[in-house]
Amino acid sequence: MKALAILLLLFAAPARAATFADAESAFNAGQFAQAAVLAGALHTADGDALVARAELVLAAYLAPPAERNGHLSEAETAARRALERNPDHVEAMLHLVIALGYRARQLSPLAAHSAGYGREAKQLIARALILAPDDPWVHGIAGGWNGELVTAAGGFLAKLFYGASRQRMTAAFGRAMTLAPDNPAIRVEYAKVLLRLDADRYAEGARALLAAASAMHPANAFEALLQAQGARLLSAMDHGDAALMAALAEVTPFSHQEE
Asked: Which pLDDT tens digit goes with each residue over 166-190?
């Protein structure tokens, strides 16, 4: 019996190594921490970009507040590592832009400007637009970047220092929605930007975006998470300004309202 057991061990098939598909399946299923671990073990640019993607979700929405900056640091490190492996990795560029934006939100506009976050993000977006002009998330993040700068610094300074504007925000999000007509997450993110920019002025547009997002079918757990946030905002819009601002603060990662 002992000899048989040894033979079985010798001829047993080795455990299959995790693949990128395994890591992405974990992400799509909402197992974000597991996705980061599996993707990190690949030691590839694609794997590192997926680590950044998963860590950003944890940092923004799911980790306890005391742990969020730790996940944000992991995301930024992974995105930069992916770009070291492949300087033209578009997904890594986008995740780095998001991470820089979260960093900037925790500072005053002047401190964020001095840290160079806006300038680096602008360069990354410009490069991503050249490399992947038909990627909806490239345009969606470009729209978010424009809106974030106008919200933080005002239209004049945003345009003076970065060339950012409401018009470019609108155009970028419009292109993103054309390229991804069934993606609820892009519409919810656009609505968030509009509400943060001017909840009174853009209430009707934000409501239309949120209503459209609520009728879509999410392709993965991340889209479902954003769709649920959109439903929360849409409901809050019917309960007055205070309810809307509270809901908006809940779904805006690293916002000043959280402090």
From this structure: 999 999 999 999 999 999 999 999 9
Q: What is the distance between the alpha carbons of residues 97 and 53, in angstroms, rounded to a whole number?
A: 11
121 by DSSP, 3-state: which?
helix
Q: Which residues contact 179 (CB under 8 A, 6 or more apart)?
A: 134, 135, 136, 139
d(CA 146, CA 166): 7
Cβ contact 220:235 at 8 Å: no
- What 3-state DSSP class applies to 210? helix
Q: Give the CA distances from residue 179 to residues 11, 91, 137, 186, in Å, rounded to whole numbers and listed in that order.
A: 51, 16, 9, 11
Residue 30: name the closest of 73, 68, 61, 74 by CA: 61
DSSP H or E stretch at residue 162: helix 155-162
pLDDT tens by residue, 3-56: 554 444 444 445 567 899 999 999 999 999 999 999 999 999 999 999 999 999
What the block records as the tokens of 7 is: 């033979």
